[in-house]
Amino acid sequence: MIVNNFIQLTLLSLLTKAQVTNFGSEDGLTEVRKRVAEWEYPVAPRDESATDTYWGKTVQDPYRPLKSLLDPKTLKIIDESNQFTKKVLDLDVTRSSVRNDLERMSAYERTSLTANVNGTIYQLYNPGTYTQSILTRQRTTVLVKLLLKIFTKNFVDE
């Protein structure tokens, strides 16, 4: 019940936020509420008899069957939930524009601070189009060693 309520509230907030600008009136919200009421949520397996006892107090744990991730029932509810979420998110007319804006804003070149280890400089580099940064390394030359010595002497108190 808690999982379904959380999914419902999350999706409702996303959908109403996106659709209010599309409809622009209270009638639009009423239309969205009608659509939300028609949704068929995936039903998670429950075990009402599952309980735990903590410091002498009994606490119900109806969703204990979901704790085993490789159980076919758990995999089925995960699959159904993903399909349901995708279907609802595809209804959002602003989703593609928000996604494009986020991709555009995150597409910039990034480098991490350098680390000098045993005469080799290590650095993480991302040109802005990769999902993960690349670890780069470079052997230091005499000039690089001299520059590192100058900069570390100026910026780090010995």
From TrEMBL:
Could you state one GO cellular component term attached to this entry?
cytosol
**The keyword Signal is assigned to this record:** yes
Keyword annotations from UniProtKB, A to Z = Signal
Indicate what this protein is called per its UniProt record: Peptidase S9A N-terminal domain-containing protein
Domain named Peptidase S9A N-terminal: which ranges?
42-140
Query: Where would one find the signal peptide in this protein?
Result: 1-20
Q: Which Pfam families match?
A: Peptidase_S9_N
Q: What domain of life does the native source organism fall in?
A: Eukaryota
**GO MF entries:** oligopeptidase activity; serine-type endopeptidase activity
Native source species: Conidiobolus coronatus (strain ATCC 28846 / CBS 209.66 / NRRL 28638) (Delacroixia coronata)
The UniProt entry, under InterPro entries, shows:
AB_hydrolase_fold, Pept_S9A_N, Prolyl_oligopep/macrocyclase
